[in-house]
Structures are given as structure tokens and as C-alpha cells.
Amino acid sequence: xxxxxxxxxxxxKNLSGSPKPVEHVRVLILGxxxxxxxxxxxxxxxxxxxxxxxxxxxxxxLTTTTEVENFPGxxxxxxxxxxxxxxxxxxxRFGTDVRFGIATAADLSSMPYRITIDDEKVVETDALxxxxxxxxxxxxxxxxxxxxxxxVSACATCDGFFYKGKDVAVVGGGDTxxxxxxxxxxxxxxxxxxxxxxxxxxxxxxxxxxxxxxxxEILFEHTTKEIVGDQSGVNGVILTNTKTGKDVxxxxxxxxLAIGHHPNSELFKPWLDTDEVGYIKTLPDSTKTNLxxxxxxxxxxxxxxxxxxxxxxxGCMAAIDAxxxxxxxxx
Length: 331
Known about the structure:
alpha/beta, FAD/NAD(P)-binding domain, seven-stranded mixed beta sheet, disordered N terminus
């Protein structure tokens, strides 16, 4: 399930059929990654008493990263989990109310905006900051779903340890795929990087890193036809050469996907403008959406950079935009 996924529910009633309790807040932040927590720090310091709902993955995608070396202020690097704990503590220090819960419905048809949490309660808010992030994409193969959790993974840093000393494959040609492959190369005996095109889309720095890693083999112009295995899990993958049309079986124990992300914006699409993929559109040099008082920050609005530092920066922007909005309307 996505970070914030709409569930079928009877409007105005919780799972027991009784009316949902309603709470009113000034600023509601959905999401607890770098964007959500940074927005919380800034709105809390502005005495806006923000409430943060963490979602199904507290701390966001960064908690699946072992070592973060490119975030300013950590000269020796930091684990993604530790950095998110630091951000959470900082937000709470200034009075942010951080709660575990999942947004299951939204009504942005009128103000105050209404968000249903866990299908049990409704939170009304004068300003809504959406920082729900993005979710990894899968190929859509039947065999991929069959072996999910038994050799198929979308997070190398989460599951790579289980394949220490084994052969694995990574699908994708961008920075994420290159990063996942080099991470796994430090654990596994051999890493096959499966690339559909005849070149890598990754940045030059990441391409050089892949090229300099001896136990990574790039399989250009190959697509995944089927993942194979038995009751114990994945033991191979069948690839199709896009030039010759011939199939080849590669023996592996783990299959990792790194083919992009899907923004967690489904809940808001009836009201907010999104691009063809689903990323929420914001005004130039702003986090403002097409609705007054609704702001989007982080990966849910960013199809280009998807970095912790850019997410944090946009969270700061969203907080300042929300503060100015509330000040102008004198809520």
C-alpha cells in the first residue's frame, strides 16, 4: 500500500459505523520524511502548532538508506534512520505533535479542509502541507509478485544483507539503479545491472562508480521476461535481448528493482492539479497548489531531483508559504 492510500469508507462514519470524531488544527502535515519534518520545524517555530501524521513508513524512504554522505552538516556521514530521528526530535522540540497514522480519505472541496485518519477520525485544517513522498515502481510481472519478499525487493539497503556472498540483479539505468548496484556490490559476490537501453541514464559520477566496481556486470539492451524460483525463493531470472530477441537465464538469488517511483498523490487528485505521472503541480518558485491553503513539498511534487536536501528545502518553502497564507487570512 502507498504511504497515503484512499480506502473505501462510508463518509462521516468510522469502521464501527458511528460518526467519526472531528479535530481542528491550524496546520496539518502529511508525511514524515525530510520535507514533512522540515515543514514541521519551521511551522512549529512560527507558533502554528503543526500536527504531523507519519504515514505507513515513519521517516520516509530515507530510513531505508544505510549511509547518507551528501547531506550538509554531517561531515562523517549519517545513517538515514538516524538523520530522520534527529529531524523528528528537532520538530518535537519546538512543539510539533507527531502522530502515527495514515490518511485514508480527503475532502478538499471547501475550507477548512478535511482529512480522514485511519478511517477513524477527521482532522480539519486551515492549512494543509502534503509531503507524502513517492513509492518505488515494479515491473508488473506475475512472477515478480509471486516472489515478492522471497528474493524480489525494491530496496537494496533494506534487504541486501540477506544476499551476502550471493549473486543478485538490479533493474534500471538511472542514479537509483547505479547506487543500489554499488551498494549491493559491497555485500554480494556478483551484481548484474539489467539496463533496457544501450546506455546508462545515471549521472557521470555514478556511471564512473559502477564502471570502477569489478563485480558489477552491466547487461545492456536486456529486459526482464520472468523471475524464476522454487519454494525457497528466487534462483534465477530470464532476460530477453532486445536486439536479437533471444532469451537467456541468469542464476541469481535476489532481484532488486530500481526503475523509478510513483508519487503518493492519489488521495488528492480529485482536487489538485498533477502531471501525467501524478506529481502534484505547484506554482513557479512556490509550493502553492491550485487550491488556497494547500501546499506540496518533497518527492510528491519533484520528478527531477528526489534528494533529501531538496525535499528539506521544499519543506521549508511550504512552511513559509503556509505561515504567510495564514497570516494574510488571519485565521
